[in-house]
Prior knowledge:
Elements: H1 5-26, E1 29-35, E2 44-47, E3 54-62, E4 67-72, E5 75-77, E6 86-93, E7 99-100, E8 108-109, E9 121-122, E10 133-143, E11 151-156, E12 161-165, E13 174-177, E14 181-186
Parallel strand pairs: 2-14
Antiparallel strand pairs: 1-3, 3-10, 4-9, 4-12, 5-11, 6-8, 6-10, 7-9, 11-14, 12-13
Amino acid sequence: MKLKPASAFRIFTGVLAACVLANTSAAAATASLSAGDDCGGGSAGAFTTSGGNVKVSLCAATSGKERVCGYTVNLQSASAPASGAFKVADIVYSASFPDKNTEFTLPVSIIASPGAIDFGATTTGEPPATGGSVRLMTFVIAPQSAAAADSYEIVLSATSIFAISEDSACSKLREVPIAARFVLKRR
């Protein structure tokens, strides 16, 4: 069977597009904000202004050969009226990411505009293995007396990224924008 040139070109471009899509989808890294000290808590948590902090973990899920070698992250309130209703009281970094990107003093208010503080960190050894969900850090969030509404949303700012690499030496770095949200509901 002999193909016409137009048919052969369509088949070639279809195969080429499928290869490009397969290569792109195999290399993915996504972020999530999870209730508690691990990545299994879900994207919502309860708060009260009468005491008690809320723990929220930043988690990374990778596929293919990708590994997270570092990250830049900033929390922000999803709306202006919620600015300052919560503060980051403490941060617990995972053992894989001991090198903070910047020095800062806690507590830090979570405001509606992206803040200047990068809470991110970099690995100093081999990054966590690929696949599944890995905890990068846990924020200890303190509700403030100004948190009078029933529900608030905290998001990663648009400047948040993962630095990922296909190798364990982190020698082929590329930046991937990340997004995640967490909902705090009054108890």
